[in-house]
Amino acid sequence: MNYPVWYIPEVGGGLLIAVIAIIHVFISHFAVGGGLYLVIAERKGLREKNRAILDFTRSHAKFFLLMTMVAGGVTGVAIWFVISLVQPAATSLLIHIFVFGWATEWVFFLVEIVAIFVYFYTFGRMDDRTHQAVGWIYFIAAWLSLLLINGIINFMLSPGAWLENDSFWSAFFNPLFWPSLFFRTAVSCMLAGVYAFLTSAFLKDAAVKQTMTRFSAKWVLGSYLAAIPCGIWYYASVPPPARALIAGASPTIQRTLHAGFWALIALAVLTLVLVILRPAFHSRPVAMFVFISAFIFMGAFEWTREAARRPYVINEVMYSNGILKAEMAGLKQNGFLRSARWVQQKDLHEESLLDAGRELFVNQCYACHTIGGINNDILARTKTMSYPAILSYLGTIHDKRYFMPPFAGNEAEARALAAFIVKGLQGKTITEGGAPGGSKGQALFDANCTACHGQDIIRSLTTGWERARVRKGLNRLSALNPAMPDYQGTPAEKEALADFIVSLNSPQPAAPAKGHDHGEDVFEQNCSMCHTLRDGGNPLLPKVAGWDQQRIRKTLDILDTLKGSIMPPLKASPADKDALAAFLASSSKGGAE
Fold first, then answer.
1. 343-371 burial, b for 16+ CB within 10 Å, e for fewer?
2. DSSP H/E element including 240
3. In 449-548, which residue ranges form alpha helices assigned H by DSSP?
């Protein structure tokens, strides 16, 4: 909020960063592993006294020079340009924390530039031992550049002890430093072989082509196998909230990982079957297919690493919209607009409501959402949401969708933002109540579900479901899909919401459940996380078979003192315990389901 926003609503700054960063990372990792590949390939040619291998190494070095120094250099500058425009606050913070780290990396990059130019232009003109030494100098400088950048970018996902001691060394040697360094080193070597598939595909000498194809394939598969345990180590070191997003809490990450998984499978199969077992199949289309598979994998990894930081751009420090976590409480109390430096609407008035809402959207939502774009289009996300639904959603947005930052503003500003989305973007009329003639269940659906699911989607997903199944599902949404947060409504609200969902597939509104037992609600809220009634793991009814209601009621008061018990005491009112005892007694006799 201390910097102006580079506002291109149809594209979105986050997408620009992602596209440029993925291309640069795919090249920069080749710049590390490819340097080692050149030295080892040249050594192979010298040891075997094979002029054809040396000639290939020289031509590959030219490709390497152009790809890393030109394409890599341009995309590297582009990253600095775009992040300073899209995320100026985060960029500034990283520079202040790691200023000497960045400076040191630039020194090593300068060494890389000099070494690779000397290596290529003296190929065949310098004695072999010295020439090899120049190649090693390049690789060591490139790997040290990777080491330095690795510490900085992983700080953004896992700041570690820096949060307590504010130390440069704690920030640099963060919990992800070592697993990421080993993983990226393995991936760099793998990409060295992938890029070499491209250049070796153009060889006319069949014997040399087969030799360098097998040589490159060993790089790919060996590094592939080395990356697997490093990747597992990396994943285990990721902070728990980010690991939960990767494991399924974020639909975007799941789609990305799915693409990356199949790209990895394609990369392994093509390398193993077409290149090692039958190197004669190696052709330019095959090489390009391997290259694209590797690019998709690398893109999926980088996208996942970036997305796993959500709702932060620097984990536990700064949200993705540039607002510091430490400032959030004050902004909620005092408001955002008055303290933001680059907004025109400092005060809220009825006539400036939409203008103020637009500025709130630009400063708080645009970091992740576009307007009519391909990435997180706010128009599509809010198409079916009413004004009350959006207003309610803004109040609990971070609780319902952890990867979204909390709204940083007071109640009046939340109303302005909701008004801008509903009237300014969707062109709808602002109404304070629910939809005319709408039921309580519909209002609950609009407020809690439509941000992710339209009625048509829920109708198709619950076709053929009985009401009892719908009602039961509302108690365990995260078990049905890790991306869904559990619904925190009261039992009565769940009943109303279940009625509405069932009505979507019924020509007539579903009748409320008859004779609903309050004891069932008590069971669901206090017992269902460990017990089922009859089926599944740890069923409860068989344990109380033959017990009368009085015995069950007495036991509910002493759960934590029972022999061998690991159960906590039941924290419920006497009336709730009475209802639970009656429900269990009735259920054990077959009187309830």
1. bebeebeeebbbbbbbbbbbbbbbbbbbb
2. helix 240-244
3. 455-461, 467-473, 477-480, 491-503, 518-526
Please give the model's pTM, rounded to 2 decimal places.
Answer: 0.77
Q: Rg of the Cα trace of the chain?
A: 30
Q: Which residue has the tokens 């390497």?
A: 64
**Quick check: 290 pLDDT over 80?**
yes
Neighbours of 506 (CB within 10 A): 12
Domain 519-588 coded CATH 1.10.760.10:
yes
What number of residues does the chain have?
Answer: 593
Q: Phi and psi (nearest 5°) for 318?
A: -135, 130
Q: What is the pLDDT of residue 569?
A: 78
**β-bridge partners, 324:** 318
Encode 515-537: b = buried (16+ Cβ within 10 Å), e = exposed: eebebbbbbbebbeeebebeeee
Residue owning tokens 């596209």: 19
Higher local confidence (pLDDT), 568 or 306: 306
Q: What is the DSSP letter of 66?
A: I
CA distance 307 to 301: 10
Average pLDDT score over residue span 439-445: 75
Choose which CATH entry (1.10.150, 1.10.760, 2.160.10, 1.10.3430) describes domain 321-433.
Answer: 1.10.760
For 62-180, where are the E strands, in sequence order?
Answer: none
> Alpha-carbon distance 201 to 213, whole Å?
8
What's the first-to-final CA gap in the chain, in angstroms?
A: 54
How many Å apart are CA 157 and CA 311, to the nearest integer?
A: 11
Indicate if 519-588 has the same CATH topology as 321-433: yes
Nearest to 401 by CA among 277, 295, 484, 487: 484
Instruction: Tell me the DSSP string of 160-175.
Output: TTHHHH--HHHHHT-T
What's 270's DSSP letter? Answer: I
User: What is the share, in percent, of the chain residues with pLDDT greater than 90?
Assistant: 55
Q: Which position has the token pair 């790919």?
A: 220
How many whole angstroms separate alpha carbon 563 and alpha carbon 87? 58
Better-scored residue on pLDDT, 441 or 71: 71
State how far the Cα of 508 lies from the Cα of 312, in Å rounded to an integer. 45
Burial class (CB in 10 A: 0-12, 13-18, 19+), 407: buried
Q: Count CB-CB contacts under 10 A for residue 95.
A: 13
Q: Which residue has the tokens 């002029």?
A: 51
Domain ranges of the chain: 13-319, 321-433, 436-516, 519-588
CA distance 377 to 31: 36
